[in-house]
Structures are given as C-alpha cells and as structure tokens.
C-alpha cells in the first residue's frame, strides 16, 4: 500500500468543510422566491376525514396556498409503492392498502399528512397550518401486533383482511420437524425486538423547484439514493419523466436506512412547486422525524432450537410477527423476510431451519429498513437463544458456539445464503483473549464483594452485505437490480473525477474511493475528486445502504479503472514506442518495465485529449464507465463480547469493557472502518438499554421527542476495543465485505447476554432500562 | 413559536410593571424551560419580560448561617461559587448534575423554582433545607411554597428575587437521571439542619411534585446513617408511573438515593 | 419586530426581525451562517451550540432579544484564515465526525470544555461534559479522543503564548 492507498489511515478529505461549518445540507439551500411548506398532520391513529375548512388558513398573512389530499389524488400523483413483492405460503401476493401522499379520506397513523400550507416563511406556514380545521370521525385503532391480530380487531385496509400483509415461510418444515423429533434437548425463547426511531441528526428536508419553460423539476433532498428517488418519482408517482427531473442529495446528515425511502413530503414539495409556481422548501422538525421517518425493528418472535445429546444443533424453528405500521414503506416487505430469515443460521451448522413470518398492519408509523435491517433481529434472536441454551445445557457459551461453528467454506445454509468464506473461530478466539475471558470469574467474584453484579455476554454475528446480486434478488421479488455504476474521468491535466452511484452521508467515500484510485495509479488522493448525489452528473446508481458501497460501489470503480488503465497503457506504449504489455503503472507514471523510460499520467491524459498522436483508430479522451453486479452477497462476521456491571440498588448498567472483533475482508481505511463500527455498536447498545418507540393503546407515540426517547449520550456508552481478523471476500475484486452495519447487528445480544448473566435472570426484554433490570432482579430474588 | 413581544427589564419594578401591562406576559430568565415549551407552541405568552440582566437579581451573598442566591443567578455561577462550595457543597453538586453545560450557562435558580417542574432538582434542595423563597412582595417558607405539579404559592405579578438557604450541619443530594430527558427520575436531598431538624425531600417521584419523605426523616432522626434506611419501606402511593419507571421502582429509588445522599453528606 | 445589534464572528451586525426569532435562525436565515444546525425541538441535541460572550450556549433556545449587544462566535468564526482551530484539527485527525451534522455544535461545546478544564480532562469528564450534544454516527469514541487530543494541543498552544 502507498501512504494514501488501500489500507492507509488517511484523514478524510470531506472533513474540512464540515469542521469549518461549510457543509451544504438541504436546509442550507435558499432559492430565489422560495416558499415554505408546513404540513397539517393527523392527531388521530385512525379516523375518517369528514371535512376540511381551508378559508381561514388561506386568508392568513403570507399564505400562498393550502393544498389537500384530495387535490393530490385528483392531480393523479401516484400512491406510494412498496418495491419488493413477497408472496405468502399459499402463493398469494402480499396484501397492500393504498397510501396516498396526503390522506384524502382516511388517516391511519398519528402524523400522517392531510394538507399542506405553502407560505412566505416557515413561521407563517406553521401559523396558518393551525388555522386549517380538519373534521375527523375517529375509528378504533390497533397500536401493536397483538392488538392487530386479535379477533375482532379494527381493520386498517379492506385489501388486507385480519391486518395481515403476508404469511410467509422459508426453509424445510418437514426436515425441521424431524430434527426436533430426534432432539435430546430443546431450548425455547420468546422475544420482542423493540421498535426504534432512526433519528439521523439532520431531520429530513426537501427543496423543490419547477421551471415551467422547460417543464423541468429540481429536487434537493435528504436521500441515500437520489437515482432511485428519481426513478420512483418518475415511474410510479407521475411527477415528471426522468429527463425532466433532477434529484440532488447534497451533504446528508446521517441516514441509517431512514433516508432510503421516498416520502410523501418530497412528493408534495415537487407537486406544490408546480402548483404554486414558486420553489418550495420543507424542513422537518424532530417531532415530525419521530412520527414520519420510517421506524425500525418491531418483531415478536418465538424460537426453538433442537440439540442432540452432544449439544450439536439439529434444527431451528422460528415464528415471527413483524409490525409494518399503517402502510408498506418502500423496502419494508423484504426486511423481515429476505434480510432477516435468511440469516437465522448465524455462524452455525444447523441442518434444518424453518421460519414463518407474518407481516402485520397497525395504526403506527410505517416500519422499514434501519441500520442492519432484519439482520440485527436475526442475530439478536439467535444469539440470545444460543446463550439461553448454554445456560440450560450448563455448558460454556463460547464452547457451545465453537462446537457448532461452520468451519468449511463455501457453506450452503438451509435458508438460501451460501457463505463464501470466514473464520469464526479466529474472531471468537481473538475476542476471548482481548477481554480476558479466562479471568472473568475472578473479576465477577471481586465485583460481588464490592456489592456489584458483573456479567459477561457474547454475540457471534454474521450478516449478508454487499447488497446484492440483481438476478438473485429479482428472483426473490425485488423490483430493482442492485448493481452499482461508476465513471472514471481523467481530465486533460491528469486530475481525476470519479462519478459514483453510491451516496456518502457520513461514510467517507470522498476519501476511501480516492484511496482506491491512489492505490492503483500511485497518485495523491488530492488529485482525485468523488462526484456523487446528483442525477445530472452521475448517470445512474442504486445508492448507499446494506453496507454495499465498498463491496459493490468500489468494485464498479475498480472495473472502470481497469478500462481507463488499459487505454492509458496503450497511449503510453504508443508515446514511448514500447509494447503495451511492458507498461507498468508506478507513482503516477507509466513505465516501460526494465527500462528508465516513463511518461507521467498528466502527459498521457494530455495526449488522449490533444489526440495529436494516438494509436491508429483510437478514440480521443480518457474516460470509462462500468457497471458492477455482484455474484453473491458478502458475509462480514465477528465476535462481540461485553462485560457489564449492574448496580443492584438502581438496576443501572455500566460497561466495564466492550470488545469487537470483526472480519470485514480487506480494509480500505482502517480509521474509517473503526468509526463505522463504533457508531454501529452504540446504535446496538442504544437498542439494548435505552431506545424504545412506545405507542399507547390509542396509537399515540408516547416517545415522540428526545425528552422521552432515550438517545445514547457520550456518558451512556464506553470506549471500545476493536480489532480485525481477515478472510478476503472471494466474490469481488477488492476482497472487501462491508462494515457499516456490523456494530448495530452484533451488539445488542452481547449486551443483554451480559446483563442477564449479571442478574441471573434470563427473562429480560430490550431495552433493559434500569427499571426493567431492577424488576427482573426482584423477581429473581423472590424466586431464589 | 407564536408571535410574542420581547422586553428587557432593567429593574425589578420595571419588570413587574411590564408583566402587569402585558398580555399573558411571562418572565424570561435563562429561558431553558419556557422557550422549548414556546417552540412547541404549548405556551403563547403575548409578552416576555427578560429579567436575566437585572443587577439586583444576580449574585450570591453569604452572611453568618445563611446563603442567599439571587433569582437570576445562573447554574454555572452557582456551582462555581466559592461560598456555595464551602457552605452548602450539596447545592454545588446538585447544580453540577442538572441539565447539561450549555443549559447551566443560561438556566437560573429562580426560573427552576418558579416553574416547579416535578422532576426539577432545586425544589428538593429548597424543601429539604427549609429555605425561604423571597419575592418582590414577601418571604415564603419552603413548606408553603410548592403547591403541586407546576404550581407554586406565587401570585400574579409576583417575582422570585432570591432564595435564602440556612446553612445546614450536613446535606447531600443523589439523583437517578431519566435516561431520555436527563431530569430527575428520582432525586433525594437530605439535610441535618443546625437546629437539629432532619429533612428529606424527593423530586421526580411524586405525582404532586417535590415532597418530603417522613419515613426517611424519621429513620435518619434516630440514626443519621445510610444503613439506618436499610429496613425502611417507602410507600409507592401517589408516585409517578410512566415509561421510565413504575411507582414501586421509584419508591425503591427514593430509599436508595436517600442512602447515597446520606453517604455524600458524610 | 425589533432591531438588534450584535457582534458575530468579530463583525457588527444589525437586523430587524420578529421578536420570536431565535438566534439560530438569525444566524442561518438572515446572516447565511449555515454551519450552525438544528437537530431537535427540545434543547437537547446541541447541534446549534455557539459561543455567546465566550460561553457555549444553545442558539435554538435563545431569542435574538436576549443577545442584543452580545458577542457571538459560530463555527465559521473559530479558524484563523486557513489555519484550523486546534479543536477542528483534532476532530479531523481523530475521525471525530462522520456525517458532520452535529459536528459544529460538538466542536463549539468541546472548545468550551477545554476552556473550563484546561489540562484536567479525562475520558470520564469529557463524556459527562458532552451530555448536551447528541451524535448518531460516531458512537462518541472518536469524539472523546478528539477532545482529549485537542485539550493537549490547546494547552501546549496556551503555554507557548
């Protein structure tokens, strides 16, 4: 590696603008004549709209227009779509209710948009929104899974009887039943995977501008995937054909999945900009983020694992209910199915697995992918089940895992995934060593003598990243291909622009992608610019989620670079009067191997563009593009071990140590990789001990601000001990696997396994708040 | 936030006159309780009277056995004040775990006390130390000041000008934070006054706001030590039950925090 | 409407604004200083922290009237030309930021922490002092490292002066 090439801990190129206050986020954009939107939202979880009075609002100062759900339906703006078709056991398609961008007739969750005020300022728009009078006829609501599937439950959509979206299965039921019939021991667990609110620090925002002369729209939006947004806005929402719609996602302040989806607010801003003839800005506040950003998780599950007399796993049976909220968000259907159940084999050799997943409508905010998306739910379920098994079977939890680890690769699981490579013993060994597992009993005893309860918990996770082989996901119902595109432009002076369909909203692509180019050409990263997030600049791309930008996005750049290098070598060979097979690239020069003859990259580039002396028949210029479609998912995996101390007086958990050992394949920039892990771990810890989106029975979100929803703060979490083991991914040219979600996937089980170990009571749900832990301790003491 | 008119007062008299004249007018000091509520449009004062820069309302005076903190003194200035640290270190500690650093620069003791948020910290200190709330009209003993959730004895056009604390023999404060808001999930202030009186006050726990806890006071009267509380049971009658803690959990916290407060008091 | 005058990053500014205008909106909407952000409605996240008369304060919880005559420093005002403030440099060098949205408030709070504690900072203190700043990306690990690193840089710089 060079000093700025692959593997180097290079400081980020993008940082300077952020640390000096020169980032450019959507809300920073101000257009000439811009107006401001404020939405009128439903205060009810379920109600019929019986009338709307707009006159008072329209007469308020600064109001340009007030627009309603009926108008957006009348204008034939399309309903929101769900882009992944899932079929039930019986072969029927999933049952979807219509989701208009603003509700014309019925509202189905608190916060659903009903109307919008467009005014000269944000304050005036909000003032007028309060003057819009909506008459509602309240309907009974179902606010959670159990209420939604109960007999006689209120029904959300006539299309989905019983509030069931689908009843899906995977795996071999018969083989699994047989495995259980042979079992020496069966271990069972029932769990809730708590609902989370993503809470990227930048609230969602949109600025839309319509140019009537060109019949052209521009949308600046907080998106992780602007091209997908444009495609959906064009093809399904009838906003404008793609060539008449430019979508720009400038600096975006965190996404975590919540900014993948195309939301009603962007659609309305675009539509309203044409209706009013003025640019329209909408910036969500935090309360709107809580009630309108797609939530994450929210599963109820029961799982059973069959073991033989030697504690080898024989089979796994899981039934999960997944809460989708009131409408099916863009990728929601895939999350508890192909992103969840396909990972239930974990790191283990489980011969038979059968899983059923029932998707359920409730009168709550829609639920979709949130950091990890299905994989954290799978890991939490499996790793709590394995830990529970170790306790019931009275074997060391590390040994039980080790006994059942997959050690031969490739490995075909019973639930679709074919793991390409890995070394699960290596990461577990490293983690056990780092935390001094052998010394834990002595530490526990010492803590006890000081009146504290100490516990240790393991979590060995695997995830499927690098999303995803297009043909495979197409066969599973995805509405899109999940390849990535790249374009490499060598300018006449030899500087380079990389155009990518990946989108950076904190991941540091401007640095890591440049490191790839630096590595290949031996030039400094400041000679390379990364261009992303603008449909006018980048031809197409699928965006950033599912830890895909390195494995898929960089692989596309790699392919385009190979093409550029091949042409540049031809030019260099021609200039140097050598054979192109003898040209090597070193330190920014094209050299004739074994000689001192060389030509620098800028001279090659200049030759390409002057075209005065190119090989016969060669086109001028030095620019190539590539599409990369992965052949398989990638499989990052690792071992996390957490050591906690619980205060017996208050039930409060504090962290003594947290060790994470990950196998991400090749690391492009270890500093950035570690940062991704830190952030993921804290989201996992947040889910484990702090965060919970709670609805009351009427469907009101009780935790709709940071006053009630506990976000992890600096003093809630520890510093981390992070290290890596490496097996290179054979599926892509860089050998990378992806690192963005691992922490959020693996951490929560380690934390809960540690707390339950500390208090000696395995019955504990997330978030393990002090209140819950204290109650679990009281029950345990009463039982003893 | 709804439209409002901002006024900066330069004296107590001017402030009270502006309040009397204004429409649904409110005093504004640090603004860290009022402005968030106004931003969410849950309050709509027509006039705001800023009292944060009135010289007579700022400062801390130590005289004999009394520590007087004027109403618009900020948390930051209280926790770093040498007299506070010397005479009632428990107040300095309480202030250091209240809000966050940015809030402590702006928030004032008068604002906190006048609001009487059921999870605020200062009311516990005032009640446990049997402090006196001084206003532009009168002096109100602590036991008569707090009147339930967000309610105080303050009348219209009455403004807190200072709080006078008798310096105790010993005092301590311990708090379990609400994991989301960082207010007190339950906080307990214990004090052994120079008169010999033992007082304990809990915040964050009761549905009626700050309250004294007789069962703790009685046990500590017999024996001022954390272990004296080992055997007591705090009733959960009337305690808050919410997503962050059940009433029996809060009853437990009152006891545990009281024990830690006694340990801190020494 | 009221007329307010204040100093922002060393320049005298006057503005005629509604009394309900918050300092953060004056900075962002009227003065174009968009480095100061809004991340919550409840005065908790700290994305909006600026220095008012040298103290780190939440500009989303400050009316412009309250800062009439005050001296404000924002994230745009802490570097000397091209030379970064040591806290800015430490955030970059320690990868103390990812999406960058909380970063300006984080840096402004962190400078204030170092001003108050000088060299007497440890990890636990930094974590406690960052209570009023929420970050969703970094898990705080590298933010804590950045602040500790900057504290030593700032103390060295101070000692040299």
Automatic annotation (TrEMBL), chain B:
Any one GO MF annotation of this record: FAD binding
Q: Is Glycoprotein among the key words of this record?
A: no
Q: Which domain of life is it from?
A: Bacteria
**SUPFAM superfamilies assigned to the protein according to its UniProt record, in alphabetical order:** CO dehydrogenase flavoprotein C-terminal domain-like, FAD-binding/transporter-associated domain-like
Ranges for domain FAD-binding PCMH-type come to 1-170
Which controlled-vocabulary keywords does the entry list?
FAD, Flavoprotein, Oxidoreductase
| Pfam entry (one) | FAD_binding_5
Task: List the coiled-coil residues.
Answer: none
Recorded protein name is Xanthine dehydrogenase family protein subunit M
Q: Which organism is it from?
A: Rhodopseudomonas palustris
């Amino acid at each position: 590696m060079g000093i700025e090439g692959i593997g180097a801990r290079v400081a980020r190129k993008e940082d300077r603008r952020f640390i000096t206050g020169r980032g450019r986020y959507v809300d920073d954009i101000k257009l000439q004549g811009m107006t401001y939107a404020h939405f009128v939202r439903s205060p009810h979880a379920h109600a019929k709209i019986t009338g709307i009075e707009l006159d008072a609002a329209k007469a308020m100062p600064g109001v340009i227009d007030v627009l309603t759900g009926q108008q957006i339906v009348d204008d034939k703006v399309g309903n929101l779509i769900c882009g992944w078709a899932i079929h039930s056991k019986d072969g029927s398609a999933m049952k979807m209710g219509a989701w208009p961008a603003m509700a014309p007739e019925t509202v189905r969750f608190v916060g659903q948009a009903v109307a919008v005020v467009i005014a000269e300022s944000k304050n005036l728009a909000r003032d007028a929104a309060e003057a819009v009078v909506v008459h509602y006829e309240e309907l009974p609501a179902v606010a959670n899974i159990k209420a939604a599937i109960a007999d006689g439950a209120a029904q959300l959509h006539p299309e989905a009887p019983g509030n069931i979206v689908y009843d899906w299965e995977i795996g071999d039921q018969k083989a699994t039943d047989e495995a259980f019939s042979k079992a020496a021991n069966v271990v069972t667990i029932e769990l809730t995977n708590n609902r989370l609110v993503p809470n990227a620090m930048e609230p969602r925002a949109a600025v839309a501008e319509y140019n009537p002369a060109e019949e052209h729209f521009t949308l600046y939006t907080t998106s992780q995937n602007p091209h997908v947004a444009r495609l959906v806005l064009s093809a399904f929402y009838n906003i404008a054909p793609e060539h008449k719609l430019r979508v720009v996602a400038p600096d975006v302040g965190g996404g975590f999945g919540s900014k993948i989806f195309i939301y009603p607010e962007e659609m309305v801003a675009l539509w309203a900009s044409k209706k009013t003839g003025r640019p329209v800005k909408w910036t969500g506040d935090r309360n709107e983020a809580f009630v309108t950003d797609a939530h994450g998780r929210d599963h109820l599950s029961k799982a059973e694992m069959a073991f033989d007399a030697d504690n080898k796993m024989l089979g796994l049976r899981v039934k999960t209910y997944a809460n989708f909220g009131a409408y099916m968000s863009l990728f929601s259907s895939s999350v508890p199915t192909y992103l969840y159940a396909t990972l239930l084999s974990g790191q283990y050799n489980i011969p038979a697995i059968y899983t059923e997943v029932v998707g359920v409508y409730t009168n709550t905010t829609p639920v979709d992918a949130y950091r990890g998306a299905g994989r954290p739910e799978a890991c939490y379920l499996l790793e709590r089940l394995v830990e529970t098994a170790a306790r019931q079977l009275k074997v060391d939890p590390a040994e039980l895992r080790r006994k059942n680890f997959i050690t031969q690769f490739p490995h075909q699981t019973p639930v679709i995934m074919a793991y390409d490579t890995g070394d699960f013993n290596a990461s577990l060994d490293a983690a056990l060593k780092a935390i001094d597992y052998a010394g834990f009993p002595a530490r526990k005893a010492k803590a006890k003598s000081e009146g504290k309860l100490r516990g240790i918990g393991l979590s060995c996770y695997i995830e499927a990243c690098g999303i995803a082989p297009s043909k495979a996901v197409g066969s599973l119902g995805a509405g899109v291909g999940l390849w990535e595109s790249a374009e490499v432009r060598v300018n006449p002076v030899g500087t380079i622009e990389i155009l990518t369909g990946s989108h950076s909203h904190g991941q540091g692509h401007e640095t890591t992608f440049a490191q790839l180019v630096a590595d290949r050409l031996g030039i400094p990263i400041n000679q390379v610019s990364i261009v992303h997030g603008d449909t006018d600049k980048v031809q197409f791309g699928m965006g950033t989620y599912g830890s895909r930008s390195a494995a898929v996005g960089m692989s596309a750049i790699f392919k385009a670079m190979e093409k550029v290098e091949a042409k540049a070598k031809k030019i260099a060979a021609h200039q140097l009067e050598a054979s192109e097979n003898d040209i090597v690239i070193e330190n920014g020069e094209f050299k004739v191997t074994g000689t001192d003859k060389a030509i620098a990259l800028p001279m090659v580039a200049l030759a390409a563009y002057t075209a005065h002396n190119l090989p016969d028949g060669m086109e001028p210029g030095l620019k190539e593009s590539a599409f990369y479609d992965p052949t398989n998912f990638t499989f990052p995996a690792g071992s996390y071990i957490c050591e906690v101390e619980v205060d017996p007086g208050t039930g409060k958990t504090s962290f003594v140590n947290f060790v994470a050992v990950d196998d991400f394949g090749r690391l492009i920039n270890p500093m950035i990789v570690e940062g991704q892990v830190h952030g993921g771990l804290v989201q996992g810890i947040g889910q484990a001990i702090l965060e919970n989106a709670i609805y009351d029975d009427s469907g009101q979100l009780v935790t709709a601000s940071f006053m009630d929803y506990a976000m992890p703060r600096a003093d809630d979490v520890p510093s981390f001990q992070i290290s890596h083991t490496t097996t290179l991914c054979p599926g892509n040219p860089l050998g990378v696997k992806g690192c963005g979600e691992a922490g959020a996937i693996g951490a929560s089980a380690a934390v809960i396994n540690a707390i339950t170990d500390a208090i000696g009571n395995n019955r504990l749900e997330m978030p393990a708040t002090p209140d819950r832990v204290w109650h679990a301790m009281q029950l345990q003491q009463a039982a003893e | 936030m709804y439209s409002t008119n901002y006024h900066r007062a330069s004296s107590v008299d001017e402030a009270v006159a502006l309040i009397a004249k204004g429409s649904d007018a409110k005093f504004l000091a640090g603004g860290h309780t009022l402005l968030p509520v106004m931003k969410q449009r849950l309050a709509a004062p027509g006039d705001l009277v800023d009292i944060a820069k009135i010289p007579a309302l700022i400062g801390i005076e130590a005289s004999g056995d009394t520590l007087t903190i004027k109403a618009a003194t900020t948390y930051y200035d209280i926790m770093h004040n040498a007299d506070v640290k010397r005479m009632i270190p428990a107040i300095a500690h309480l202030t250091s775990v209240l809000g966050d650093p940015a809030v402590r620069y702006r928030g004032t003791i008068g604002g906190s006390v006048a609001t009487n948020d059921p999870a605020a910290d200062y009311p516990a200190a005032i009640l446990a130390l049997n402090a006196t709330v001084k206003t532009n009209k009168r002096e109100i003993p602590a036991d008569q000041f707090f009147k339930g959730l967000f309610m105080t004895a303050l009348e219209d056009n009455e403004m807190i000008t200072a709080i006078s604390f008798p310096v105790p023999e010993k005092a301590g404060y311990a708090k379990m934070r609400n994991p989301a808001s960082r207010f007190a999930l339950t906080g307990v202030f214990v004090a052994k006054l120079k008169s010999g009186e033992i007082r304990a006050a809990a915040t964050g726990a009761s549905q009626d706001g700050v309250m004294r806890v007789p069962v703790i006071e009685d046990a500590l009267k017999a024996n001022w030590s954390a272990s004296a509380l080992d055997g007591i049971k705090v009733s959960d009658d009337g305690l808050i039950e919410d997503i962050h803690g059940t009433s029996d959990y809060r009853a437990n916290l009152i006891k545990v925090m009281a024990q830690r407060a006694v340990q801190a008091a020494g | 409407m009221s007329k307010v005058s204040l100093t922002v990053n060393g320049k005298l500014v006057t503005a005629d604004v509604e009394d309900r205008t918050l300092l953060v909106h004056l900075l962002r909407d009227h003065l174009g200083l968009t480095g100061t952000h809004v991340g919550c409605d409840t005065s908790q996240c700290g994305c909006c922290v600026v220095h008012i008369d040298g103290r780190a304060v939440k500009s989303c919880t400050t009316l412009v009237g309250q800062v009439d005559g005050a001296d404000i420093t924002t994230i745009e005002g802490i570097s000397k030309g091209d030379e970064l403030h040591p806290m800015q440099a430490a955030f970059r060098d320690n990868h103390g930021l990812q999406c960058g949205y909380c970063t300006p408030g984080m840096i402004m709070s962190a400078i204030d922490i170092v001003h108050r504690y000088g060299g007497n900072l440890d990890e636990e203190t930094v974590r406690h002092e960052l209570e009023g700043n929420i970050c969703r990306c970094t898990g705080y690990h590298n933010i804590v490292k950045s602040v500790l690193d900057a504290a030593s840089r700032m103390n060295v710089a101070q000692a040299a002066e």
